[in-house]
Amino acid sequence: MKIAIFGSTGRVGSVVFQQAMSKYEVNRLVRRGSEIDPLGTEIVGDVLNEEDVMKTIEGSDAVISCLNTDKDDVLSRSMPILLKAMRCHGVKRIIICGTAGILQARKDSSLYRFQSNESKRRSTTAAEDHLRAFLMLQASEMDWTVVCPTYLPDGERLGNYRTERDVLPEGGKSISMYDTGDFIFQQLEDDSYIRSRVGLCY
Which pTM does this prediction carry? Predict the structure, then answer.
């Protein structure tokens, strides 16, 4: 299997990348100035550049995105480019690292968590960017999974955590970047959560 990874130099993305390199052939897109790992195929470029994204996804069987959001809405601006490249190259499987804010609120399923008092974050900018990207995926024909961790300290790899479809497991407070990355990687061979969001926490 060949995997295209976006966001592989971030905290969760670097965990996914190390796991993927041990088992699969990997293409990854990295920004100029990023630390380059000699392993894998590195494409230096920009996720908002269609040609760079096309090169990264070409020949792949699945896409993993652990891109971070920023004040420029990179998630929602890059999603149409990722989807176009996937269609062009006949790729259906995509796994995204999202945020618990875009899960449904447990006490009011008509709201997303970030719209409810279940979320403690004052700013909703990041969640809104994640939500726009999620809605594009949801409307697509892709076999998508959006992994939605709650608070993400570095922590350590415990290998024991809880998951729930579309909501955060009750009382979930945190999940380490290592367990989050491991769970995202496992979705490559697990179709339990295709076309679903997954709440992830200890």
Answer: 0.95
